[in-house]
Design brief:
Blueprint: E1 7-11, H1 15-27, E2 31-35, H2 38-48, E3 52-56, H3 64-73, E4 82-86, H4 91-99, E5 104-107, H5 112-123
Parallel strand pairs: 1-2, 1-3, 3-4, 4-5
Length: 128
């Protein structure tokens, strides 16, 4: 699948997760932006306007729910797809993610296929 030119941001405090996501997405042609936490991410999002954002739920300082809510509250970013990442596959987490505006929920560890599929589904919904 060719996703060349798409800007995808991965926000996760785990270096391993960031690296594997970066490798998978780069191989598919994406331009990958990385952030360690919500604070780090918000300034980068404003500067780069990614097409799709992956955000880990459990992070220090600003968790994934708070980060997603802040992204969705910004009128310029409100339509940007935000996909929650979590090692727990709980209904509560999914529901809470929906409440803050997330577009999808991926359970970690994700596969290359699930990551690419999520990006292609959410990027095709956006006007190019």
């Amino acid at each position: 699948m060719d996703l060349s030119g798409l800007k995808v941001m991965v926000i996760d405090d785990s270096n391993t997760i960031r690296r594997s996501a970066e490798i998978f997405l780069s191989q598919a042609g994406c331009h990958v932006l990385l952030a360690e936490d919500g604070f780090d991410a918000l300034s980068k999002i404003t500067d780069h306007h990614p097409d799709v954002i992956f955000v880990d739920i459990m992070m220090p300082r600003l968790d994934g729910y708070q980060t997603c809510a802040l992204i969705k509250k910004n009128p310029r970013l409100a339509t940007t797809p935000v996909i929650m990442l979590s090692s727990k596959d709980g209904l509560f987490d999914r529901a809470r993610g929906r409440m803050v505006g997330s577009d999808e929920y991926l359970t970690k560890p994700f596969t290359k296929d699930s990551l690419i599929k999520a990006v292609s589904e959410h990027s095709s919904n956006r006007a190019r």
